[in-house]
Amino acid sequence: MHLLYVFLALLSLSDGFDPNCPGRCSCDYVQSVQCYRLTEVPSAIPPTTKKLYISHSKIQHLQLSNLTRMLALEDFILLASGTESVENDTFKALGTLKTLELWKNKLRRVPSALPASLEVLKLNDNSIYVLHGSDFEGLKKLKILELKNNLISSLSDIFSSLASLQSLMLDGNNIETVAGPLALPHLKHMSMENNKLHLIPAIFFTSLQSLQFLSFSGNLLTRIPINLPKSLVSLKMERNQLKVVRFRDMKHLENLSHLYLSENSLSSIEGAQLLANLTTLELSHNQLQMLPLRFPARLQKLDISNNLIQRVTVQDFQDLRDLKHLFLDNNIVSLFEAGALQRCSQLSNLALEQNLLLSIPLRLPGTLARLDLKGNAIRDIAERELKDLKQLQVLNLRNNKISALDLKALEGLPRLRHLYLDGNPWNCTCSLLRAREVLKAKGTDVRGGQCAAPAERQGESWMSSKKIMRQCEHHLHLTEKSKETKKKSKPEEHSTIRINVDDDYYDYEID
Ligand SMILES: *[C@@H]1O[C@H](CO)[C@@H](O)[C@H](O)[C@H]1NC(C)=O
Ligand SMILES: *[C@@H]1O[C@H](CO)[C@@H](O)[C@H](O)[C@H]1NC(C)=O
Ligand SMILES: *[C@@H]1O[C@H](CO)[C@@H](O)[C@H](O)[C@H]1NC(C)=O
Ligand SMILES: *[C@@H]1O[C@H](CO)[C@@H](O)[C@H](O)[C@H]1NC(C)=O
Ligand SMILES: *[C@@H]1O[C@H](CO)[C@@H](O)[C@H](O)[C@H]1NC(C)=O
Protein backbone atom coordinates (compact mmCIF):
# COMPACT_ATOMS: atom_id res chain seq x y z
CA MET A 1 0.00 0.00 0.00
CA HIS A 2 2.67 2.45 1.11
CA LEU A 3 4.63 1.83 -2.07
CA LEU A 4 1.54 2.49 -4.12
CA TYR A 5 1.17 5.96 -2.56
CA VAL A 6 4.78 6.75 -3.25
CA PHE A 7 4.31 5.62 -6.82
CA LEU A 8 1.18 7.72 -7.28
CA ALA A 9 2.87 10.71 -5.72
CA LEU A 10 5.80 10.39 -8.11
CA LEU A 11 3.42 9.98 -10.99
CA SER A 12 1.55 13.16 -10.20
CA LEU A 13 4.85 14.99 -9.64
CA SER A 14 6.13 13.96 -13.03
CA ASP A 15 2.82 15.06 -14.48
CA GLY A 16 3.00 18.38 -12.79
CA PHE A 17 6.58 19.13 -13.69
CA ASP A 18 6.58 18.05 -17.31
CA PRO A 19 5.07 20.94 -19.25
CA ASN A 20 5.00 18.84 -22.42
CA CYS A 21 2.81 16.09 -21.04
CA PRO A 22 -0.76 16.43 -22.33
CA GLY A 23 -3.82 16.24 -20.07
CA ARG A 24 -5.15 12.81 -19.00
CA CYS A 25 -1.73 11.39 -19.77
CA SER A 26 1.30 10.53 -17.73
CA CYS A 27 4.74 10.84 -19.22
CA ASP A 28 7.90 9.23 -17.94
CA TYR A 29 11.60 9.50 -18.45
CA VAL A 30 11.91 6.86 -21.14
CA GLN A 31 9.71 8.83 -23.51
CA SER A 32 6.70 6.78 -22.70
CA VAL A 33 3.24 8.38 -22.62
CA GLN A 34 0.15 6.72 -21.20
CA CYS A 35 -3.30 8.19 -21.64
CA TYR A 36 -6.84 7.24 -20.59
CA ARG A 37 -10.33 8.47 -21.45
CA LEU A 38 -9.32 10.58 -24.43
CA THR A 39 -11.56 11.62 -27.28
CA GLU A 40 -8.69 12.38 -29.61
CA VAL A 41 -5.03 11.58 -30.00
CA PRO A 42 -3.31 14.46 -28.16
CA SER A 43 -1.63 16.82 -30.59
CA ALA A 44 0.81 18.05 -27.96
CA ILE A 45 2.71 14.81 -27.49
CA PRO A 46 6.48 15.39 -27.50
CA PRO A 47 7.90 14.34 -30.92
CA THR A 48 10.59 12.30 -29.13
CA THR A 49 7.96 9.93 -27.69
CA LYS A 50 8.89 6.31 -28.21
CA LYS A 51 5.91 4.64 -26.65
CA LEU A 52 2.34 5.82 -26.80
CA TYR A 53 -0.28 3.87 -24.88
CA ILE A 54 -3.93 4.91 -25.06
CA SER A 55 -6.75 2.93 -23.51
CA HIS A 56 -10.41 3.17 -22.57
CA SER A 57 -10.88 6.14 -24.83
CA LYS A 58 -13.27 7.12 -27.63
CA ILE A 59 -11.31 7.30 -30.83
CA GLN A 60 -13.65 6.16 -33.55
CA HIS A 61 -11.54 7.07 -36.57
CA LEU A 62 -7.79 7.18 -36.50
CA GLN A 63 -6.43 9.50 -39.16
CA LEU A 64 -3.07 9.91 -40.82
CA SER A 65 -2.72 13.44 -39.42
CA ASN A 66 -3.09 12.19 -35.85
CA LEU A 67 0.30 10.48 -35.82
CA THR A 68 2.36 12.31 -38.43
CA ARG A 69 4.59 14.18 -36.00
CA MET A 70 5.57 11.14 -33.97
CA LEU A 71 8.51 10.04 -36.02
CA ALA A 72 10.38 8.45 -33.11
CA LEU A 73 7.48 6.17 -32.18
CA GLU A 74 8.42 2.55 -31.54
CA ASP A 75 5.33 1.22 -29.75
CA PHE A 76 1.79 2.33 -30.42
CA ILE A 77 -0.91 0.72 -28.33
CA LEU A 78 -4.56 1.70 -28.68
CA LEU A 79 -6.73 -0.42 -26.46
CA ALA A 80 -10.47 -0.59 -25.89
CA SER A 81 -11.17 2.71 -27.56
CA GLY A 82 -14.00 1.87 -29.95
CA THR A 83 -11.82 2.42 -33.01
CA GLU A 84 -13.69 1.44 -36.19
CA SER A 85 -11.34 2.57 -38.91
CA VAL A 86 -7.78 3.60 -39.58
CA GLU A 87 -7.17 5.90 -42.51
CA ASN A 88 -5.00 4.46 -45.29
CA ASP A 89 -1.27 4.96 -44.76
CA THR A 90 -1.62 6.18 -41.14
CA PHE A 91 1.38 4.13 -39.99
CA LYS A 92 3.33 4.15 -43.26
CA ALA A 93 5.74 6.92 -42.40
CA LEU A 94 6.53 5.67 -38.89
CA GLY A 95 9.80 4.07 -39.94
CA THR A 96 10.84 3.05 -36.40
CA LEU A 97 7.55 1.48 -35.35
CA LYS A 98 8.16 -1.97 -33.88
CA THR A 99 5.01 -2.76 -31.96
CA LEU A 100 1.47 -2.01 -33.02
CA GLU A 101 -1.36 -3.19 -30.79
CA LEU A 102 -4.96 -2.27 -31.54
CA TRP A 103 -6.80 -4.61 -29.14
CA LYS A 104 -10.47 -4.63 -28.25
CA ASN A 105 -11.62 -2.19 -30.88
CA LYS A 106 -14.08 -2.44 -33.76
CA LEU A 107 -11.74 -2.70 -36.72
CA ARG A 108 -13.12 -4.53 -39.74
CA ARG A 109 -9.82 -4.80 -41.56
CA VAL A 110 -6.08 -4.83 -40.99
CA PRO A 111 -4.71 -1.25 -41.24
CA SER A 112 -3.08 -0.69 -44.63
CA ALA A 113 0.54 0.05 -45.51
CA LEU A 114 2.17 -1.05 -42.26
CA PRO A 115 5.85 -0.07 -41.96
CA ALA A 116 8.53 -2.64 -42.74
CA SER A 117 10.09 -2.07 -39.29
CA LEU A 118 7.15 -3.78 -37.54
CA GLU A 119 8.00 -6.76 -35.31
CA VAL A 120 4.81 -7.23 -33.28
CA LEU A 121 1.26 -6.79 -34.58
CA LYS A 122 -1.65 -7.56 -32.26
CA LEU A 123 -5.19 -7.03 -33.51
CA ASN A 124 -7.05 -9.31 -31.09
CA ASP A 125 -10.71 -8.73 -30.25
CA ASN A 126 -11.82 -6.78 -33.31
CA SER A 127 -14.27 -7.54 -36.14
CA ILE A 128 -11.79 -8.31 -38.90
CA TYR A 129 -13.51 -10.76 -41.23
CA VAL A 130 -11.10 -11.16 -44.10
CA LEU A 131 -7.33 -11.13 -44.57
CA HIS A 132 -5.58 -10.16 -47.80
CA GLY A 133 -2.04 -10.94 -48.85
CA SER A 134 -1.51 -7.20 -49.30
CA ASP A 135 -2.23 -6.61 -45.59
CA PHE A 136 1.13 -8.07 -44.65
CA GLU A 137 3.21 -7.17 -47.66
CA GLY A 138 6.77 -6.18 -46.89
CA LEU A 139 6.62 -7.07 -43.18
CA LYS A 140 9.86 -9.00 -43.34
CA LYS A 141 10.72 -8.33 -39.68
CA LEU A 142 7.37 -9.29 -38.21
CA LYS A 143 7.85 -11.92 -35.51
CA ILE A 144 4.49 -11.97 -33.73
CA LEU A 145 1.06 -11.75 -35.35
CA GLU A 146 -2.06 -12.06 -33.22
CA LEU A 147 -5.59 -11.97 -34.61
CA LYS A 148 -7.51 -13.76 -31.86
CA ASN A 149 -11.25 -13.27 -31.51
CA ASN A 150 -12.08 -11.77 -34.88
CA LEU A 151 -14.45 -13.01 -37.60
CA ILE A 152 -12.00 -14.55 -40.06
CA SER A 153 -13.51 -17.51 -41.91
CA SER A 154 -10.78 -18.80 -44.17
CA LEU A 155 -7.05 -18.85 -44.41
CA SER A 156 -5.04 -19.18 -47.57
CA ASP A 157 -1.40 -18.48 -48.23
CA ILE A 158 -1.54 -14.79 -47.35
CA PHE A 159 1.36 -14.79 -44.94
CA SER A 160 4.09 -15.62 -47.46
CA SER A 161 5.90 -12.30 -47.06
CA LEU A 162 6.32 -12.82 -43.33
CA ALA A 163 9.75 -14.40 -43.60
CA SER A 164 10.61 -13.89 -39.89
CA LEU A 165 7.29 -14.80 -38.32
CA GLN A 166 7.70 -16.92 -35.16
CA SER A 167 4.27 -16.79 -33.58
CA LEU A 168 0.82 -16.78 -35.21
CA MET A 169 -2.33 -16.70 -33.06
CA LEU A 170 -5.72 -17.10 -34.72
CA ASP A 171 -7.82 -18.47 -31.87
CA GLY A 172 -11.49 -17.62 -31.62
CA ASN A 173 -12.33 -16.91 -35.26
CA ASN A 174 -14.73 -18.73 -37.61
CA ILE A 175 -12.07 -20.45 -39.68
CA GLU A 176 -13.54 -23.42 -41.51
CA THR A 177 -10.89 -24.10 -44.09
CA VAL A 178 -7.18 -23.63 -44.46
CA ALA A 179 -5.24 -24.03 -47.65
CA GLY A 180 -1.53 -24.52 -47.84
CA PRO A 181 1.29 -24.80 -47.82
CA LEU A 182 1.80 -22.10 -45.24
CA ALA A 183 5.27 -20.87 -46.12
CA LEU A 184 6.60 -19.70 -42.74
CA PRO A 185 10.01 -21.27 -42.28
CA HIS A 186 10.66 -19.70 -38.85
CA LEU A 187 7.24 -20.18 -37.31
CA LYS A 188 7.54 -21.78 -33.85
CA HIS A 189 4.12 -21.20 -32.29
CA MET A 190 0.81 -21.53 -34.06
CA SER A 191 -2.56 -21.55 -32.40
CA MET A 192 -5.98 -21.87 -34.05
CA GLU A 193 -8.06 -22.81 -31.03
CA ASN A 194 -11.83 -22.42 -31.06
CA ASN A 195 -12.46 -22.22 -34.77
CA LYS A 196 -14.56 -24.47 -37.02
CA LEU A 197 -11.91 -26.55 -38.70
CA HIS A 198 -12.91 -30.04 -39.73
CA LEU A 199 -9.99 -30.95 -41.95
CA ILE A 200 -6.37 -29.85 -42.24
CA PRO A 201 -4.86 -30.77 -45.61
CA ALA A 202 -1.51 -32.58 -45.38
CA ILE A 203 0.12 -29.99 -47.61
CA PHE A 204 -0.57 -27.30 -44.99
CA PHE A 205 2.54 -28.22 -43.00
CA THR A 206 5.11 -28.78 -45.73
CA SER A 207 6.84 -25.41 -45.22
CA LEU A 208 6.58 -25.14 -41.45
CA GLN A 209 9.87 -26.79 -40.69
CA SER A 210 10.45 -24.93 -37.37
CA LEU A 211 7.01 -25.38 -35.83
CA GLN A 212 7.24 -26.51 -32.18
CA PHE A 213 3.95 -25.57 -30.51
CA LEU A 214 0.71 -26.24 -32.33
CA SER A 215 -2.83 -26.01 -31.03
CA PHE A 216 -6.04 -26.97 -32.81
CA SER A 217 -8.07 -27.36 -29.62
CA GLY A 218 -11.76 -26.55 -29.83
CA ASN A 219 -12.42 -27.40 -33.48
CA LEU A 220 -14.40 -30.10 -35.31
CA LEU A 221 -11.51 -32.31 -36.30
CA THR A 222 -12.14 -36.05 -36.52
CA ARG A 223 -8.49 -36.97 -37.00
CA ILE A 224 -5.08 -35.72 -36.09
CA PRO A 225 -3.61 -34.00 -39.15
CA ILE A 226 -1.09 -36.08 -41.03
CA ASN A 227 2.29 -34.80 -42.12
CA LEU A 228 2.88 -32.82 -38.93
CA PRO A 229 6.33 -31.19 -38.85
CA LYS A 230 9.10 -33.23 -37.27
CA SER A 231 10.10 -30.27 -35.13
CA LEU A 232 6.88 -30.44 -33.10
CA VAL A 233 7.27 -30.39 -29.28
CA SER A 234 3.68 -29.82 -28.17
CA LEU A 235 0.40 -30.67 -29.87
CA LYS A 236 -3.00 -29.66 -28.49
CA MET A 237 -6.07 -31.33 -29.93
CA GLU A 238 -8.46 -30.97 -26.99
CA ARG A 239 -12.20 -30.50 -27.55
CA ASN A 240 -12.40 -31.98 -31.03
CA GLN A 241 -14.22 -35.05 -32.35
CA LEU A 242 -11.42 -37.59 -32.40
CA LYS A 243 -12.55 -41.19 -32.19
CA VAL A 244 -9.20 -42.79 -32.88
CA VAL A 245 -5.61 -41.63 -32.99
CA ARG A 246 -3.32 -43.27 -35.50
CA PHE A 247 -0.02 -43.07 -33.68
CA ARG A 248 1.73 -44.61 -36.66
CA ASP A 249 1.16 -41.32 -38.50
CA MET A 250 2.94 -39.50 -35.67
CA LYS A 251 5.91 -41.66 -34.97
CA HIS A 252 8.26 -39.36 -36.88
CA LEU A 253 7.64 -36.73 -34.15
CA GLU A 254 10.69 -37.61 -32.15
CA ASN A 255 10.70 -34.36 -30.16
CA LEU A 256 7.03 -34.45 -29.25
CA SER A 257 6.87 -34.22 -25.47
CA HIS A 258 3.37 -32.86 -24.77
CA LEU A 259 0.17 -34.26 -26.26
CA TYR A 260 -3.25 -33.00 -25.20
CA LEU A 261 -6.27 -35.07 -26.27
CA SER A 262 -8.81 -34.33 -23.54
CA GLU A 263 -12.51 -33.92 -24.34
CA ASN A 264 -12.70 -36.05 -27.46
CA SER A 265 -14.48 -39.34 -28.10
CA LEU A 266 -11.54 -41.71 -27.86
CA SER A 267 -12.31 -45.27 -26.89
CA SER A 268 -8.77 -46.56 -27.40
CA ILE A 269 -5.24 -45.20 -27.44
CA GLU A 270 -3.37 -48.31 -28.51
CA GLY A 271 -0.03 -47.48 -30.11
CA ALA A 272 0.78 -44.43 -27.99
CA GLN A 273 4.08 -46.04 -26.99
CA LEU A 274 5.38 -45.12 -30.47
CA LEU A 275 5.78 -41.58 -29.14
CA ALA A 276 8.76 -42.63 -27.12
CA ASN A 277 9.77 -39.17 -25.93
CA LEU A 278 6.36 -38.07 -24.70
CA THR A 279 6.40 -36.73 -21.12
CA THR A 280 2.85 -35.37 -20.78
CA LEU A 281 -0.26 -37.12 -22.05
CA GLU A 282 -3.72 -35.75 -21.28
CA LEU A 283 -6.74 -37.88 -22.08
CA SER A 284 -9.37 -36.73 -19.65
CA HIS A 285 -13.07 -36.69 -20.66
CA ASN A 286 -12.91 -39.42 -23.29
CA GLN A 287 -14.56 -42.82 -23.41
CA LEU A 288 -11.67 -45.09 -22.53
CA GLN A 289 -12.82 -48.31 -20.90
CA MET A 290 -9.43 -49.93 -20.65
CA LEU A 291 -5.87 -48.82 -20.21
CA PRO A 292 -3.74 -49.50 -23.31
CA LEU A 293 -1.30 -52.39 -23.41
CA ARG A 294 1.60 -49.96 -23.28
CA PHE A 295 2.22 -46.31 -22.56
CA PRO A 296 5.08 -44.11 -23.81
CA ALA A 297 7.93 -45.06 -21.51
CA ARG A 298 9.07 -41.56 -20.52
CA LEU A 299 5.76 -40.21 -19.29
CA GLN A 300 5.94 -37.91 -16.29
CA LYS A 301 2.34 -36.81 -16.24
CA LEU A 302 -0.62 -38.91 -17.31
CA ASP A 303 -4.20 -37.70 -17.02
CA ILE A 304 -6.91 -40.27 -17.75
CA SER A 305 -9.48 -38.76 -15.43
CA ASN A 306 -13.16 -38.72 -16.40
CA ASN A 307 -13.19 -41.88 -18.50
CA LEU A 308 -14.75 -45.29 -17.99
CA ILE A 309 -11.76 -47.23 -16.68
CA GLN A 310 -12.78 -50.18 -14.50
CA ARG A 311 -9.55 -51.96 -13.67
CA VAL A 312 -5.95 -51.14 -12.92
CA THR A 313 -3.69 -54.18 -13.08
CA VAL A 314 -0.03 -54.95 -12.49
CA GLN A 315 0.65 -54.97 -16.25
CA ASP A 316 -0.72 -51.50 -16.91
CA PHE A 317 2.00 -49.23 -15.58
CA GLN A 318 5.06 -51.46 -15.71
CA ASP A 319 7.25 -49.25 -17.88
CA LEU A 320 6.59 -45.90 -16.32
CA ARG A 321 9.66 -45.25 -14.19
CA ASP A 322 9.51 -41.46 -14.65
CA LEU A 323 5.84 -41.02 -13.86
CA LYS A 324 5.26 -38.31 -11.24
CA HIS A 325 1.59 -37.41 -11.63
CA LEU A 326 -1.16 -39.90 -12.32
CA PHE A 327 -4.79 -38.82 -12.59
CA LEU A 328 -7.32 -41.62 -12.62
CA ASP A 329 -10.08 -39.76 -10.84
CA ASN A 330 -13.71 -39.84 -11.98
CA ASN A 331 -13.63 -43.28 -13.53
CA ILE A 332 -15.37 -46.44 -12.40
CA VAL A 333 -12.33 -48.24 -11.04
CA SER A 334 -13.45 -51.03 -8.74
CA LEU A 335 -10.41 -53.26 -9.11
CA PHE A 336 -6.95 -51.91 -8.31
CA GLU A 337 -4.44 -54.74 -8.07
CA ALA A 338 -1.95 -54.74 -5.22
CA GLY A 339 1.39 -53.32 -6.34
CA ALA A 340 0.01 -52.03 -9.67
CA LEU A 341 2.15 -48.90 -9.39
CA GLN A 342 5.18 -50.46 -7.72
CA ARG A 343 7.43 -49.81 -10.71
CA CYS A 344 6.55 -46.11 -10.80
CA SER A 345 9.39 -45.18 -8.51
CA GLN A 346 8.96 -41.41 -8.93
CA LEU A 347 5.23 -41.17 -8.41
CA SER A 348 4.36 -38.34 -6.05
CA ASN A 349 0.79 -37.51 -6.91
CA LEU A 350 -2.00 -40.06 -7.31
CA ALA A 351 -5.59 -39.00 -7.93
CA LEU A 352 -8.15 -41.77 -7.50
CA GLU A 353 -11.10 -39.77 -6.25
CA GLN A 354 -14.64 -40.49 -7.45
CA ASN A 355 -14.21 -44.16 -8.27
CA LEU A 356 -15.73 -47.34 -6.87
CA LEU A 357 -12.90 -48.55 -4.65
CA LEU A 358 -13.87 -50.56 -1.58
CA SER A 359 -10.46 -50.27 0.05
CA ILE A 360 -7.20 -48.35 -0.19
CA PRO A 361 -5.02 -50.05 -2.84
CA LEU A 362 -2.20 -52.14 -1.40
CA ARG A 363 1.51 -51.56 -1.98
CA LEU A 364 1.34 -48.05 -3.39
CA PRO A 365 4.76 -46.51 -4.12
CA GLY A 366 6.50 -45.07 -1.07
CA THR A 367 7.27 -41.87 -2.99
CA LEU A 368 3.67 -40.61 -2.88
CA ALA A 369 3.29 -37.14 -1.40
CA ARG A 370 -0.38 -36.79 -2.19
CA LEU A 371 -3.08 -39.43 -2.37
CA ASP A 372 -6.67 -38.58 -3.15
CA LEU A 373 -9.32 -41.22 -2.52
CA LYS A 374 -12.26 -38.91 -1.96
CA GLY A 375 -15.70 -40.16 -3.00
CA ASN A 376 -15.08 -43.91 -3.10
CA ALA A 377 -16.72 -46.63 -1.02
CA ILE A 378 -13.83 -47.32 1.34
CA ARG A 379 -14.96 -48.81 4.67
CA ASP A 380 -11.79 -48.83 6.71
CA ILE A 381 -8.15 -47.86 6.87
CA ALA A 382 -5.71 -50.66 7.55
CA GLU A 383 -2.15 -50.35 8.73
CA ARG A 384 -0.78 -52.48 5.91
CA GLU A 385 -2.27 -50.17 3.28
CA LEU A 386 -0.48 -47.07 4.49
CA LYS A 387 2.65 -48.33 6.18
CA ASP A 388 5.04 -47.68 3.28
CA LEU A 389 3.88 -44.15 2.57
CA LYS A 390 6.65 -42.39 4.45
CA GLN A 391 6.53 -39.32 2.18
CA LEU A 392 2.78 -38.84 2.26
CA GLN A 393 1.78 -35.27 3.08
CA VAL A 394 -1.82 -35.08 1.91
CA LEU A 395 -4.36 -37.85 2.29
CA ASN A 396 -7.93 -37.27 1.22
CA LEU A 397 -10.52 -39.82 2.36
CA ARG A 398 -13.50 -37.47 2.35
CA ASN A 399 -16.92 -38.90 1.46
CA ASN A 400 -16.23 -42.58 1.97
CA LYS A 401 -17.84 -45.09 4.31
CA ILE A 402 -15.29 -45.14 7.09
CA SER A 403 -16.58 -45.28 10.66
CA ALA A 404 -13.46 -46.04 12.70
CA LEU A 405 -9.75 -45.16 12.57
CA ASP A 406 -6.85 -47.52 13.15
CA LEU A 407 -4.37 -45.56 15.23
CA LYS A 408 -1.42 -47.63 14.04
CA ALA A 409 -2.19 -46.83 10.41
CA LEU A 410 -1.92 -43.11 11.08
CA GLU A 411 1.12 -43.30 13.33
CA GLY A 412 3.05 -44.76 10.41
CA LEU A 413 2.74 -41.60 8.31
CA PRO A 414 5.56 -39.36 9.57
CA ARG A 415 5.04 -36.49 7.13
CA LEU A 416 1.29 -36.27 7.04
CA ARG A 417 0.24 -32.60 7.02
CA HIS A 418 -3.33 -32.63 5.69
CA LEU A 419 -5.92 -35.28 6.34
CA TYR A 420 -9.47 -35.04 5.03
CA LEU A 421 -11.92 -37.33 6.80
CA ASP A 422 -15.19 -35.45 6.65
CA GLY A 423 -18.23 -36.91 4.93
CA ASN A 424 -17.72 -40.32 6.56
CA PRO A 425 -20.19 -42.01 8.94
CA TRP A 426 -18.02 -41.72 12.05
CA ASN A 427 -18.75 -43.87 15.05
CA CYS A 428 -17.62 -41.47 17.75
CA THR A 429 -16.35 -43.88 20.35
CA CYS A 430 -13.75 -42.80 22.83
CA SER A 431 -11.11 -44.65 20.87
CA LEU A 432 -11.79 -42.37 17.88
CA LEU A 433 -11.12 -39.51 20.25
CA ARG A 434 -7.73 -41.03 20.93
CA ALA A 435 -6.98 -40.83 17.22
CA ARG A 436 -7.81 -37.17 17.49
CA GLU A 437 -5.17 -36.74 20.19
CA VAL A 438 -2.55 -38.54 18.13
CA LEU A 439 -3.26 -36.45 15.05
CA LYS A 440 -3.20 -33.22 16.99
CA ALA A 441 0.12 -34.18 18.52
CA LYS A 442 1.57 -34.89 15.08
CA GLY A 443 0.53 -31.40 13.93
CA THR A 444 -1.61 -32.79 11.14
CA ASP A 445 -4.33 -30.48 9.88
CA VAL A 446 -7.48 -32.63 10.04
CA ARG A 447 -10.96 -32.10 8.68
CA GLY A 448 -12.81 -34.59 10.83
CA GLY A 449 -16.45 -34.20 10.00
CA GLN A 450 -19.40 -35.28 12.10
CA CYS A 451 -20.49 -38.26 14.13
CA ALA A 452 -23.12 -40.59 12.69
CA ALA A 453 -23.18 -42.80 15.78
CA PRO A 454 -23.79 -43.30 18.64
CA ALA A 455 -27.21 -41.67 18.59
CA GLU A 456 -26.49 -39.17 21.37
CA ARG A 457 -23.40 -37.84 19.60
CA GLN A 458 -24.88 -37.61 16.11
CA GLY A 459 -24.04 -34.37 14.34
CA GLU A 460 -21.22 -33.49 16.79
CA SER A 461 -17.91 -32.62 15.23
CA TRP A 462 -15.52 -35.20 16.61
CA MET A 463 -12.34 -33.17 16.16
CA SER A 464 -13.66 -30.28 18.26
CA SER A 465 -16.64 -31.37 20.34
CA LYS A 466 -16.09 -30.48 24.01
CA LYS A 467 -19.04 -32.62 24.96
CA ILE A 468 -17.50 -35.84 23.67
CA MET A 469 -14.13 -34.79 25.05
CA ARG A 470 -15.61 -34.52 28.53
CA GLN A 471 -17.38 -37.84 28.21
CA CYS A 472 -14.18 -39.59 27.12
CA GLU A 473 -11.79 -37.86 29.51
CA HIS A 474 -10.83 -40.98 31.44
CA HIS A 475 -9.99 -42.81 28.18
CA LEU A 476 -7.46 -40.26 27.03
CA HIS A 477 -4.43 -41.18 29.07
CA LEU A 478 -2.52 -40.98 25.82
CA THR A 479 -2.05 -37.23 26.01
CA GLU A 480 1.34 -37.34 27.77
CA LYS A 481 2.72 -39.95 25.44
CA SER A 482 1.68 -38.08 22.31
CA LYS A 483 3.48 -34.96 23.51
CA GLU A 484 6.61 -37.05 23.49
CA THR A 485 5.90 -38.16 19.94
CA LYS A 486 5.62 -34.56 18.91
CA LYS A 487 9.00 -33.71 20.36
CA LYS A 488 10.58 -36.65 18.64
CA SER A 489 9.07 -35.79 15.30
CA LYS A 490 10.41 -32.23 15.39
CA PRO A 491 13.63 -32.84 13.41
CA GLU A 492 11.51 -34.44 10.73
CA GLU A 493 9.74 -31.15 10.18
CA HIS A 494 12.89 -29.44 9.02
CA SER A 495 13.40 -31.86 6.21
CA THR A 496 9.78 -31.66 5.06
CA ILE A 497 9.76 -30.88 1.39
CA ARG A 498 7.14 -28.52 0.07
CA ILE A 499 4.48 -30.28 -1.92
CA ASN A 500 5.28 -29.79 -5.52
CA VAL A 501 2.37 -27.98 -7.10
CA ASP A 502 4.21 -26.76 -10.18
CA ASP A 503 2.29 -28.12 -13.09
CA ASP A 504 -0.76 -29.59 -11.46
CA TYR A 505 -3.94 -27.66 -11.17
CA TYR A 506 -5.27 -30.46 -9.03
CA ASP A 507 -7.09 -29.11 -6.02
CA TYR A 508 -7.77 -31.47 -3.15
CA GLU A 509 -9.73 -28.80 -1.32
CA ILE A 510 -12.66 -28.94 -3.73
CA ASP A 511 -15.78 -30.32 -2.14
C1 LIG B 1 -7.18 13.49 -35.95
O1 LIG B 1 -6.80 14.70 -36.53
C2 LIG B 1 -7.88 15.47 -37.07
C3 LIG B 1 -7.31 16.72 -37.67
O2 LIG B 1 -6.17 16.48 -38.38
C4 LIG B 1 -8.86 15.84 -36.00
O3 LIG B 1 -9.96 16.52 -36.58
C5 LIG B 1 -9.34 14.59 -35.32
O4 LIG B 1 -10.15 14.94 -34.23
C6 LIG B 1 -8.18 13.74 -34.84
N1 LIG B 1 -8.73 12.48 -34.40
C7 LIG B 1 -8.33 11.89 -33.34
C8 LIG B 1 -9.00 10.59 -33.02
O5 LIG B 1 -7.47 12.33 -32.63
C1 LIG C 1 -7.42 2.49 -49.05
O1 LIG C 1 -6.65 1.43 -49.55
C2 LIG C 1 -7.39 0.39 -50.14
C3 LIG C 1 -6.45 -0.69 -50.58
O2 LIG C 1 -5.26 -0.64 -49.86
C4 LIG C 1 -8.15 0.92 -51.34
O3 LIG C 1 -8.93 -0.11 -51.89
C5 LIG C 1 -9.02 2.05 -50.91
O4 LIG C 1 -9.65 2.65 -52.02
C6 LIG C 1 -8.23 3.10 -50.16
N1 LIG C 1 -9.12 4.10 -49.64
C7 LIG C 1 -8.95 5.40 -49.88
C8 LIG C 1 -9.97 6.29 -49.27
O5 LIG C 1 -8.02 5.81 -50.52
C1 LIG D 1 14.75 -32.07 -31.62
O1 LIG D 1 15.27 -31.36 -30.51
C2 LIG D 1 16.68 -31.26 -30.52
C3 LIG D 1 17.10 -30.64 -29.21
O2 LIG D 1 16.34 -29.53 -28.93
C4 LIG D 1 17.11 -30.45 -31.72
O3 LIG D 1 18.50 -30.33 -31.76
C5 LIG D 1 16.60 -31.15 -32.98
O4 LIG D 1 16.91 -30.37 -34.10
C6 LIG D 1 15.11 -31.35 -32.89
N1 LIG D 1 14.66 -32.16 -34.02
C7 LIG D 1 13.90 -31.67 -34.96
C8 LIG D 1 13.49 -32.61 -36.03
O5 LIG D 1 13.52 -30.51 -34.98
C1 LIG E 1 13.89 -39.37 -28.51
O1 LIG E 1 14.75 -38.27 -28.44
C2 LIG E 1 16.09 -38.56 -28.72
C3 LIG E 1 16.92 -37.32 -28.49
O2 LIG E 1 16.15 -36.17 -28.37
C4 LIG E 1 16.23 -39.06 -30.14
O3 LIG E 1 17.54 -39.39 -30.43
C5 LIG E 1 15.35 -40.28 -30.31
O4 LIG E 1 15.35 -40.70 -31.65
C6 LIG E 1 13.93 -39.98 -29.90
N1 LIG E 1 13.17 -41.21 -29.93
C7 LIG E 1 12.11 -41.37 -30.70
C8 LIG E 1 11.49 -42.72 -30.73
O5 LIG E 1 11.60 -40.47 -31.36
C1 LIG F 1 -19.73 -48.12 17.34
O1 LIG F 1 -18.70 -48.72 18.05
C2 LIG F 1 -19.15 -49.45 19.17
C3 LIG F 1 -17.94 -49.89 19.96
O2 LIG F 1 -17.02 -50.54 19.17
C4 LIG F 1 -20.00 -50.59 18.71
O3 LIG F 1 -20.47 -51.33 19.81
C5 LIG F 1 -21.17 -50.05 17.89
O4 LIG F 1 -21.93 -51.09 17.36
C6 LIG F 1 -20.67 -49.14 16.79
N1 LIG F 1 -21.78 -48.51 16.13
C7 LIG F 1 -21.96 -48.51 14.80
C8 LIG F 1 -23.14 -47.82 14.30
O5 LIG F 1 -21.15 -49.06 14.07
From TrEMBL:
<dbReference type="GO" id="GO:0000122">
    <property type="term" value="P:negative regulation of transcription by RNA polymerase II"/>
</dbReference>
<dbReference type="GO" id="GO:0030512">
    <property type="term" value="P:negative regulation of transforming growth factor beta receptor signaling pathway"/>
</dbReference>
<keyword id="KW-0677">Repeat</keyword>
<protein>
    <recommendedName>
        <fullName>Nephrocan</fullName>
    </recommendedName>
</protein>
<keyword id="KW-0433">Leucine-rich repeat</keyword>
<dbReference type="GO" id="GO:0005615">
    <property type="term" value="C:extracellular space"/>
</dbReference>
<dbReference type="GO" id="GO:0005614">
    <property type="term" value="C:interstitial matrix"/>
</dbReference>
<dbReference type="InterPro" id="IPR001611">
    <property type="entry name" value="Leu-rich_rpt"/>
</dbReference>
<keyword id="KW-0732">Signal</keyword>
<feature type="region of interest" description="Disordered">
    <location>
        <begin position="479"/>
        <end position="511"/>
    </location>
</feature>
<dbReference type="Pfam" id="PF13855">
    <property type="entry name" value="LRR_8"/>
</dbReference>
<dbReference type="InterPro" id="IPR032675">
    <property type="entry name" value="LRR_dom_sf"/>
</dbReference>
<feature type="compositionally biased region" description="Acidic residues">
    <location>
        <begin position="502"/>
        <end position="511"/>
    </location>
</feature>
<feature type="signal peptide">
    <location>
        <begin position="1"/>
        <end position="16"/>
    </location>
</feature>
<dbReference type="InterPro" id="IPR050333">
    <property type="entry name" value="SLRP"/>
</dbReference>
<dbReference type="InterPro" id="IPR003591">
    <property type="entry name" value="Leu-rich_rpt_typical-subtyp"/>
</dbReference>
<dbReference type="GO" id="GO:0030198">
    <property type="term" value="P:extracellular matrix organization"/>
</dbReference>
